[in-house]
Amino acid sequence: MQFDYSLDFKNIDFRQHPELYRVGKGEQGVLLVEPYKSEILPYWRFKTPDIARESSEKIYEMFLAYLEQDDFVGADMARKFIQMGYTRSRRYANHKSGRKYKTNPQKETSPSAQLQARKDILPYEVDPVKAESAAIFKEKWIQAKTNEKYLQLLRKHQEKVISYEENKST
User: Fold this and answer.
1) Among 51, 75, 101, 119, which is most buried by a count of CB atoms within 10 Å?
2) Which parts of this chain are annotated as the region Disordered (predicted)?
3) pTM (2 decimals)?
């Protein structure tokens, strides 16, 4: 199910209302869903491999703790932060500035300008330190997204969401 950006994220406690949470694609909503964002964000770092290792291990511990509590939303948010640790450190590994494009495609108003901006990729400047940080996060991300209990809770959550949506529309 698509991530629902129309929700009032400032006023929803997703621990109290997990039925409103949609997994979406990739890292969608990672900086919106509370109280999880505030619980996990302070530990999210990737500047050096040592920092990335400490960060990914702490967030993975949180992931496991959420699973132990059968808190799917918390576990999924921890998984998203781990995934974001990988994607952001990979971006910095490839582009020193952390920017992939010369101009931000999302700020372009016309579809043709957005398309052109996506073709205007900055040159690669491989940073082996950030690449190592990315590899550390990637290992934890794979562990998280393939964790059997996580997959079970994902299926249960999807079933609850479908039931909630069906009941809401009747």
Assistant:
1) 75
2) 93-114
3) 0.85
